[in-house]
Amino acid sequence: MVSDKIYHLVPSKCSSNQASMVVLPAACTETDTLRQGFTDDLHWILLKLHAEAPARLIYLSGISLGGNVVTKCLSELGENSSKINVRGAAVSCIPLNLVESTG
Length: 103
Prior knowledge:
Blueprint: H1 2-7, E1 20-24, H2 30-34, H3 40-52, E2 58-63, H4 65-77, E3 86-92, H5 98-101
């Protein structure tokens, strides 16, 4: 599972009052285009971070296709994002047309 690999990049010994940032890098290949709406890994990471330390503040960052995943995940969570302490997000270079962006 991809989320297991990404999750291990997040410090697991943070105290409950420290913030965590989850960064999704740019990745826009032909196979990634097929997964453009895949947010299960990010949901899993957010829920695991919250379960470990419910008071921990979480910030997201996404570049390119990672920005698409962050944006879609936040729209799926809606107001529930505040219940798991997602406090902010920054995205950049989101491709408007993923098919044409794969070059």
